[in-house]
Amino acid sequence: MTAIQPVRKLTIIAKDPGLRIGSDGPMVFARVDVPAEILAPGPTGYRIKVVDYNATEQRAYAARQSYQSGDILLDPFAPGDGEALTDRDYQARVVANPNFHAQNCYAIAMRTLGLFERALGRRVSWSSGGHQLHIAPHAFALANAFYSEPDRALMFGYFFDEEGKPIFTSLSHDVVAHETTHAVLDGLRSRYTDPSGPDQAAFHEGFADIVAILSIFSLPEVVAAGLGITHKLPGLGEPLAFITEDKVTPEAIRNSILLGIGAEIGMASGAGRGALRQSVKLEPHPRILDAPDMAEAHSRGEVVVAAVTSAFVKLWTTRISHLGTFDGRGYNMLAVIEEGAKAAAQLLQMSIRAIDYCPPTDLDFGQFLASLLTADRELVPDDSRFGYRELVRQSFADFGIVPPPGQTDADGCWPHFAASEALRYSRSNAEALTRDVDECFRFLWENRDALEISERGYTQVVSLDTSLRIDPDGIPFRETTCQYVQTGRFFGSELMAICKIKPLPDGFTTRSSADLFGGGVVVFDQYGRVKYHIGNGLIDGERQKRRLEYLRDTGQLSAQRSDERSRFANLHLARMGG
Fold first, then answer.
1. What does the angle CA 325 – CA 328 – CA 333 come to, to the nearest 5 degrees?
2. Rounded to an integer, what distance in angstroms lies between the CA atom of residue 215 and that of residue 256?
3. What's the per-residue H, E or C state across 428-481?
4. Which pLDDT belongs to residue 562?
5. Which of 243, 253, 224, 252 is nearest to 330 (CA)?
6. What is the DSSP pairing of strand 48-50 with strand 133-141?
7. Angle between the N-to-C axes of helices 173-188 and 198-215, in degrees from 0 to 180, rounded to the nearest 10
8. Helix 297-321 with 567-576: angle, nearest 10 deg
């Protein structure tokens, strides 16, 4: 009887075709683990469906690869006998095959989805409600790639550089992971694509970059090449290898290709400007978000990326400094790579878990920081060894991002729900409360006064998710998160009377109307008791006034809720062409 395989290996380009082993060496390929499944042509699995249609050429690429032979799972692009991942002829043959582009997208998207599901301790749904996300590896002849909400798809374009060489966005690990993260985040927080304050759209872009950057540190081939190592890694044909101290200083790491996004695309489309985004090189300044050029979503998002990557560089170099050196030869290279992987994995998991503690509407960077610190403290109360949370908090503060004043505790975390004695559980079915949205809504409605949920808006429980995580001591940690949103149309007179917005923002009258959004997350512990209530109130006048003024100033007051089909397309096209 054939043993069931939990994972399978598939070949990908490990970061970006622009990352080479040496100055002019081969590209960096890797074979990565993805969930084992019987794939249909495409490849198509239970979460990803690759549809390789080129709208520019009106051409469909036939899927000619087989991914299994009976019960044996295959990697159709694995090196053949006598070949290696670093062989130039092998790489040229593989990259020229459009079916490899399809596999590259599928494998990276599934790997990215797996990062979220492992960190959150549960399955993650797409925002469409469907089971499969479509991917088009050669969607159009254009220097762009984007997540299309209405099409439930990731679209990857291609273009030609000055020498006529085709550049495929679907071959960049950075770009595929970035766009997949947009799709995953949209499933977790569907209202983050609503017109809101300046941080919300920026957060979508910045968070996608954080996942794309940190996720590659589990691939030792990428880290070694990014640090300038030109020989094979130990275990791949070489004995113990070393890296000199000058290559792992904070400055050297910031200048490496590891912390940039889209190196090949940036070089080809931007007159040799390098990576599309290199957030880690932003100079910290407490008023940086007030700069005029920080209104654009990608630029503003780079600030939160810079805060996370700066913390990562400090953590990694601190961990490296604890390693012993070999006289005249530097550090053990594999130990350096392993320390980077540990630091990146911890920061990535902290960032992903933070989403469960983020308000579902009108997010700002300070709230994300508070959620990140809270999520990590819940799982790892003792942070004394490396001080991740304090270092992250300081790194954010360097860029002017602090936990919301007056709403968080001394550690910058969300406080436990203070009015727990006022909650009524007696009219709720305890067994159904944390698994049935209608029962959960009844609980919220019954306790609307204690939870300070306004009766004025339309309230809906949009998700109820139970997570099972394992703490560092191996003890299971279970929570259930209820996400609810509120909507309401308010006339100017109601903004004054109910929301206490006085005077009204310029341009508003008592007869003007505006759509307001609010909502929160209620976190239940393993006993079904409320542990946290984190939200943005529908009638929070101060917050709603700031939001309305921002939407007025940016011409978004009349924008419909994410019905604009080209939202991500236009945003990414503007950035790539910039």
1. 50
2. 16
3. CCHHHHCCCHHHHHHHHHHCHHHHCCCCCCEEEEEEEEEEEEECCCCCEEEEEE
4. 44
5. 243
6. parallel
7. 130
8. 70
Cα separation, 225 vs 227, whole angstroms: 5
Residue 356 in tokens = 């469960």
DSSP 78: S
Q: Rounded to an integer, what distance in angstroms lies between the CA atom of residue 495 and that of residue 516?
A: 10
Q: Which residues pair with 489 in a beta bridge?
A: 515
80: its two tokens: 């053949």
Strand 153-160 and strand 133-141: the pairing is: parallel
Please give the single-letter amino acid code of residue 562.
S
Give residues with Cβ within 8 angstroms of 44, minimum separation 6.
50, 132
Nearest alpha carbon to residue 145 among 212, 244, 245, 232: 212
155 phi/psi in degrees, rounded to 5 = -110, 125
Cα–Cα nearest to 74, from 38, 41, 107, 47: 38
| Crossing angle for the helix pair 388-398 and 297-321, to the nearest 10 degrees | 140
Residues 442, 459 contacting (CB under 8 angstroms): no
First to last CA, the chain: 57
Q: Judging by beta carbons within 10 Å of its beta carbon (0-12, 13-18, 19+), is residue 293 exposed, middle or buried?
A: exposed
Cis preceding linkage at 43, omega within 30: yes
Quote the CA–CA distance of 101 and 99 in Å, as a whole number: 5
Q: How far apart are CA 332 and CA 367, in angstroms?
A: 39
268 and 161 Cβ atoms separated by less than 8 Å: yes
Bridge partners, residue 554, by sequence: none
| C-beta neighbour count of 530 within 10 angstroms | 20
Pairing assessment for the beta strands 53-54 and 476-491 based on DSSP bridges: unpaired
Residue in this structure with the two tokens 């009349």, named with its chain if needed: 558
CB 145 within 8 A of CB 490: no
Helix, strand or coil, per DSSP, at residue 47? coil
Contact 186, 127 (CB under 8 A): yes
pLDDT truncated to tens, each residue of the chain (578 aa)? 456 678 899 999 988 888 888 777 889 999 999 999 999 999 999 999 999 999 999 999 999 999 999 888 999 999 999 999 999 999 999 999 999 999 999 999 999 999 999 999 999 999 988 999 999 999 999 999 999 988 999 999 999 988 889 999 999 999 999 999 999 999 999 999 988 999 998 999 999 999 999 999 888 888 888 887 766 554 444 557 788 888 899 998 988 878 776 666 666 665 444 556 678 788 999 999 999 989 888 889 999 999 999 999 999 999 998 888 887 778 888 889 999 999 999 999 999 999 999 999 999 999 999 999 999 999 999 888 888 999 999 999 999 999 999 999 999 999 999 988 999 999 889 889 999 999 999 999 999 999 999 999 999 999 999 999 887 778 888 999 999 999 999 999 999 999 999 999 998 999 989 999 999 999 999 999 999 999 999 999 999 999 999 999 888 877 544 445 456 666 666 555 54
